[in-house]
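Newbie here. two chains, one complex. Structure please?
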Amino acid sequence: MRAPSSGPEVAAGDVLLAVENVSLTFGGVKAVTDVSFDIRKGEIRAIIGPNGAGKTSMLNIINGFYQPQRGRISFKGVTRTKMRPYEAAHGGIARTFQNVALFRGMTVLDNIMAGRTLKMKRGLFWQLLRHGPALAEEIKHRAAVEEIIDFLKIQEIRRVPVGRLPYGLQKRVELGRALAMEPELLLLDEPMAGMNIEEKEDMSRFVLDVNDYYGTTIALIEHDMGVVMDLSDRVVVLDHGVKIADGTPDQVKNDQKVIDAYLGVAH
Amino acid sequence: MASETAASADTFPKLLVRNAKKFATRPAIRLKYLGIWQTWTWQQVLDQVRPLALGLHKLGIKRGDTVAIVGGNRPPLYWSMMAVQMLGGIPVPVYADAVADELAYVLDHAEVRFAAVEDQEQVDKILSVSERLPKLEQIVYDEPRGLRDYDHSRMHAISSMIADGRKALETDPQISAWLDDEIAAGAGADPCVILYTSGTTGASKGVLLTSERSIRAATDTVTFDKLTEKDEALAYLPLAWVGDYYLNYAQGLVAGFCMACPESPDTVMQDLREIGPSFYFAPPRTFEQMLTRVTIRMEDAGAFKRWLFHYFIGVARRYGERILNGEPTPLHGRLLYGLGKLVIYEPLKNVLGLSRVRVAYTAGEAIGPELFGFYRSLGLNLKQLYGQTEAFLYLTAQPDGEIYSDTVGVVCPNVDIKITESGEVLFKSPGMFAGYFKDEEKTAAAMTPDGYVKTGDAGFFDQKTGHLKIIDRAKDVGRLKDGTLFAPKYIENKLKFYPNIREAMALGDGRDFATVMLNIDLTAVGNWAERNNVVYGSYQELAGHPLVYDMIEKHVAEVNRSLASEPIMAGAQIKRFLILHKELDADDGELTRTQKVRRGFIAERYAPLLTALYDGSKEADIATQVTFEDGRKGTIAARVKIRDMQTEPVPAAVGKAA
């Protein structure tokens, strides 16, 4: 069901996105300093680090929300200097947010349908007419959204306004909306924050399933170390905006610099 | 009629073949998938089951093999059952939510070589206990998601098996003829399913049922309730429970009606509304939840709507059941009820998905008369039945127009029921089980020498109505000193149906007369206290209030009156009662975690009260230790009053019928 997004195809295992020597400052505050790492096609890549390490800034740089002052980002082999979030979306990057960002008054179905906006070809005229090509298009997109609803097992809340749902389910709906874009790279900003153990287990299952079933490359920020170590193929560790480690979960876990950063040794 | 020809087909696969001819284009099974209801006709179902049977045969399933069916109500799992039966195998449905350990026990005990499962969750569960299941060879699954990286030498997708089988059947007429022979070779005396009882009392037992008997039982009830191919049921009960296998699978095949599978276990209420079944079964708890939901939503409605609702529910309570039972009703009552039907009852039933229900059953536990009356008064043909897995479900059921909240109905056609000296219900029925699988000893223990099956329940036939009443588990039924039957749960249930009474514990086994200890319901009685300007500071104070005692006394007197109207129970009327100074609590060990009263423990803990109940004193002192929510312990001391009751004369002329 994967629709190809723009740009050249990247084979599994090759570099999908590379960040090279990126620095970002807000006034005098250095958020990210000279960070380089890559995300390979088909992997689950975790970005971890203590509070204020620059993880969310990194995610915002990747999807074009922040413009780094220095460094380069290449996505699917195309190096870019400046990119807007909607360009990133068109290019196949979708994301979820640390604090759920859904349309609270709209139903689950409508929220996920909103994720298909970019794929709607018909203009306002046809949409208003609600007949002919627009209708056919709507049916096609609705079918895709129903696949996602089935995938995430949220059939029973299809018609429920998002604002009435518990937090854990809202997070799942947000994942659904990101999936509706059929992204090539999915950025998850703390997908398990504020969840209980059972909800975390469910969410972990869905992250793995997305990766396995849709073949989506995933970059995630997460605080729960157990989750990170279980889910991810490779981990990059940031501390005070600087990359201090990069490798498999096992390598990272035993890295002295990482242990120091988490346990708070004087710098 | 469907049921007449059913007798000629003695196995379920033969019935399927018959239905595919007779009801070819009628819907047989539905599933809501991706938000849209998909329908398979009987012909299409046969076209799925035949290739699947071929696929299973290729995996090595032979006549007499057991096959586990694990999962929710999915059409491919029902097809698997049919396909297994087609080959002469025996499906063994297992509860989808069984933990790995229970699953391992059943699969091991049933010696299954094959398992048909729903999804990855069930596959994982089976694989996690695979070392305990050396006999298990192959797994077939419905939902492929997440299973891509598994070892597929022992795993097969049901969909691809059907596709492969179809190709083989189309190209080779010999295979098709072979399959026809396989179906014809099935005999009525062959076992058709093993249903494992839930095992609340010890390890679960595998109840072995045979085809012909099952079909005969289902044919009887299909006739009893006049079910036809135009009916429709929602298949939402667990596959492993006799209810689903009987009500939906067996009756569906016999009558040719359609069963609809919900989209997911969580969407059942919505699916119910969309399907609008004409045959519906639910345990009392489900009906209670539905009513609670309606009540809560009505509280949120506007003042006018709320008034309208309460007014017409009042009308329904007054006249509804009388109209449904064909009793004389005043004209204005009929008119008001007609109006209520238009503005409240029908729309309400529509919201609940009960508009088209022609026959609804409830069973499993006692249903409160209030609750039962509510649905009846809306015009829902809700009835009670009594049965057991060993009987292949039905033993008694209420015929249309003869409905009472405290009976389980008249003996079903061709069922023979006997009640022993001690009050235990025994039966012989057309669907009677062939025995417990691999357990001669337990089979023998469950049977009487003359071939009746013991139910373990105590009951009696109501003289007025001829209906059976179940009073308690046989082992809990005791006798007063003079030999009168004493059924504690029967008395307790009667008391607990009053909203003011939360818990009750009846005493009397081996004593001179029956007494009860009660808990009042703090919400209900507190509400009453507020309206009647009764001031109280705690549960203890309210429970000991003389006015509360007066009110409860009236309830107990009514219970006595009702007991007196039943000759068998009349001797065990309540002579004395007391209201406990504290609520019975699971934290104090007085209730089980499932909120059942622990008799022995309470009798010990409240020994001074027990003595006082029988030595004639008017009050008694009691001090008990309690555990607070934060784990601290404290002591509550109280002086508890005891009330004497007037008992009704035993051969009562008047009294509530049933």
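Moderator note: The first strand of chain A starts at residue 15 and ends at 26. Chain A has two domains: 1-92+182-267, 105-176. Thread marked as resolved.
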